[in-house]
């Protein structure tokens, strides 16, 4: 009986949009839209190489400790740019071909791309001031 009541309550809740794996609704803020996970080589070509906006490409791995620190820090700073720059996240274990093509030999590796070309790059973790300078150089601010 208690399970049925709980299920009825759950089914009567208003829809909150897509749910993240941890059960919370996913946000649709400008920051979230400016960062995306690359799905495959074709997606990378469409959304990164052919992008009219500059793109920061974060090559990372789930098992990489420094990546877990750098990723959110970089996402936050990209979101602050209010759409002037996009951020593509590429998991090297899922997209080995892209990692090889862009000569990624360690993670995290971050590329700055403009008009399909790599214009800047760094490997390893950076503090917020260094990341801001990297982004400003990319967007020409």
UniProtKB/TrEMBL annotation:
Q: Name one GO biological process term.
A: cell redox homeostasis
Molecular function as annotated in GO: protein-disulfide reductase activity
Concerning CDD domains, the annotation shows: TRX_family
The record ties this protein, via InterPro entries, to:
Thioredoxin, Thioredoxin-like_sf, Thioredoxin_CS, Thioredoxin_domain
Coiled-coil residue windows: none
- The keyword Transmembrane is assigned to this record: no
- Domain of life according to the entry: Eukaryota
SUPFAM superfamilies in alphabetical order:
Thioredoxin-like
Q: Name one GO cellular component term.
A: mitochondrion
Q: Which residues form the Thioredoxin domain?
A: 24-140
User: Which key words tag this protein in UniProt?
Assistant: Disulfide bond, Electron transport, Redox-active center, Transport
Transmembrane intervals = none
The family line of this record is: Belongs to the thioredoxin family.
This chain belongs to the protein called Thioredoxin, mitochondrial
| Species this protein is from | Myiagra hebetior
- Which lineage? Eukaryota, Metazoa, Chordata, Craniata, Vertebrata
């Amino acid at each position: 009986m208690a399970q049925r009541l709980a299920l009825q309550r759950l089914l009567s809740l208003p829809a909150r949009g897509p749910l993240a794996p941890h059960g919370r609704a996913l946000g649709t803020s400008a920051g979230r839209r400016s960062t995306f996970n690359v799905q495959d080589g074709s997606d990378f070509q469409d959304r990164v190489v052919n992008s009219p906006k500059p793109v920061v490409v974060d090559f990372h791995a789930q098992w990489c400790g420094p990546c877990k620190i750098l990723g959110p820090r970089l996402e936050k700073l990209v979101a602050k740019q209010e759409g002037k720059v996009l951020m593509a996240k590429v998991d090297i274990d899922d997209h080995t071909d892209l990692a090889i093509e862009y000569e990624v030999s360690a993670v995290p590796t971050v590329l700055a791309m403009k008009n399909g070309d790599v214009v800047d790059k760094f490997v390893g973790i950076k503090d917020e001031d260094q990341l801001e300078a990297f982004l400003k150089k990319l967007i020409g601010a």
